[in-house]
Every structure is written in C-alpha cells, then in structure tokens.
Fold this protein.
Amino acid sequence: METTPAPIDVVMLGTFAVWGRGTLQARALPLMQALHARGVRCALVTTPWDMPPAAGVVEMYEQQPLINTRARRPVDAPRAVAEQLGWVRRLGPQLVHVFKPKGFGGLAGHRLLRRLPVIVDCDDWEGDGGWNEHAGYGLLERRLFDWQERDLQRRADAVTAASTLLQRRAVASRDGEAGRVLRLPNGLPPAWLRALSAAAERQPMGRTILLYSRFAEFPPDWLPRYVHALAAHDAEPVTLSIVGTLPAGLRAELPETSAVRLEPHGYVARDRLPTLLGEASIAIYPYSDSLIARSKQSVKLLELMAAGVPVIASDVGDAAPTVADAGLVLDDIEPEHFAVASLALLAQPERRAALGAAGVQRVHSCFSFEQLSSQLLDLYGQLGLQCRP
C-alpha cells in the first residue's frame, strides 16, 4: 500500500464497517485523531460484514489508513481474519488495540496474543446477559462471542473499558489485577464538541422538552404514559421534541392533547443536531435497568451536556457519574416522576442555565478525546510504545 505512512505505531482492529457502526466512528476514529496529534501513527483494519460496498476499500482519513478486508461474510471468517493478520504484519505496529472483543477483530486479536502487546476495548456487554440476548444471533455466534469476550479480557496485555461496570468486570476476569485495566469513557472529538458548544450559547425560547435517546432503552408504553402525565400536571402548554425514528405503531399511541405539542423529527442528520439540541429547554433520558444499560456510557448524554441542555436521567449504570452536576438523576424510570421533575425544572430558568453551563464545562474537562488520549497514551507507554520521529 504505497500511501500508507510507515512505520505505523498502533493498529486498531475492528469487526464492523468503519462508517456503519457506532464504536468505530464514535470511539476508535476520534482516538486515532487525538493520538495522531500527539505523534502516534495509527491505522484501522476492519471487516465490513455489515456494509458490502466497503469490502476491500482502503482510504486515508486525516493521514491515517482505514483498511477494509476483502472477505467480509461470516462464512469467510478464516479468510477475513487472515487478511487482518496480513495487514498487521505489513504495517508492523508496536502494539494492537482491538475494538470490541467479538467477531473478526477479536479472532485476529486472539491470534496475536504473545506475538505483540494486545489491548482489548470494551464499550458494551457483548456476551451472555448482554447483546447476545438481544441482537438475534444464532447459537454458535452466541457461544463464540461470549467466549471471546471473557477470554480476551482475561488474556490481553491490557483492557480499556468505557464504563465502571465493564472496568470492574475486566478486573474480576483478570483475578483482581487492575494495573492494566483503564477506565476510558466515551468522549467527543474537538470539532463536534465545538459545534455542540456553539449551540449552548443560544437561549431556547418557550417550553421545549427533548427526547434524544434510543427507544429500545425504555418500555414501549413509557412515552405515552409520560405525555399523559405531563398533560395531567400542567395547564401551560409544553412542546415534546423527539429526535429519532419512532418504532412502528408508537406514534399512533401518543395522545394528542392541548397541553403537549408533539414534534417528532424522525432521523436527524448530524449537521442539524446542534440546532435541535440548542432549541431544547431541557432533555429527558430514561433508562430501563438492564445489564446492557448498566454497562454502557452514553455518547448521547455527552452531546446533550455539550450543547448546554439540562438533563433528567434515570440512575442506571454510569448515568449519574456522567451527568454529575449538569442535570438531575432520578431513582427510577417512572413516567410520572419524570413528568413532575420536567415541569419543575421548566419553571426554574436560573437553575436550568446553571445546569446547562455545568454540562458544557464538564464535557470539556472530562470527556474530550484530547484529554482522554493522554490517559490512553500512558497505558500504551506501559506496554512499551515508543513514539518514533
């Protein structure tokens, strides 16, 4: 590959198309950018099973190679893994960072153990009790993914974990050895952080409540019950702005009332998101208490905070330590409690302004990839990485 800068310091391995799944776009690529700014040369090698046109595509992203294997189908797993390993040999890195332990990248990471320092990144609970139960995998896939997750966390030279629960689980799997388990939360890249922070400078008009969440993270009847509770508790109208495509049938279940004006936006392109967030007076973030929710750390929460939107969230997983003093965290997910808290906060403009400002400051100081990359670079140094001129 003639355009590949040499030598490469770190190869990141993935299992999904670069532009198709959240982990590579929202986590691996921003870390690559931030590390590059610190003099670390990275490349990302992945298998685009979920995006056929990307098979075999090699491109440069801000001077760093993004490489897709030609083999991509699950039945071609041996070829795909062999291609990933071939690229690692060709690029000659000092260490390898596997983003998600499961799938093609996890298999390649297993093959590289004891040949190179291998770090595994965990940002979800993938195996039994987690996504294995919800992603529609077959029996063989579930058994493979559960084994990969447990074994790679145990045997890798180090683990990066996005949430407190994943960090604890990794330490337990390594018999209590915590020295090379790094709690590395999600963050926001500099350009996106600037765009969202610009939205925080707007003064929202009216009484707008924003729901910007994955609908799978709370029960199907939660949203209609929340709308009913809003209407029952307040005579002054509010607007409920909903970002994301509503599940089939849910729109028809939402009550039409004079007290609650619904604004379902559906899918929203990224460049429109700062404007919509900047128009919100407050945001709600309901979580059902599940193993998946307890093991995640939400990028959407960070985006809301960076845009200066006061957040009301359920106290599940890392919601409370993420939000801290930038919003309210409720003990449960009851729509009635969310409605009461929402209306109370709408009636307190000075408090909303203080919470919003705290959110912007918190994201800049704790969840910027520029800051997080410094912690990651320290871990790389423990594993012998030497940045070359």
Notes: Residues 190-366 form a domain with the Rossmann fold fold (CATH 3.40.50.2000). The chain has a mean pLDDT of 92. The CA atoms of residues 43 and 65 lie 5 Å apart.
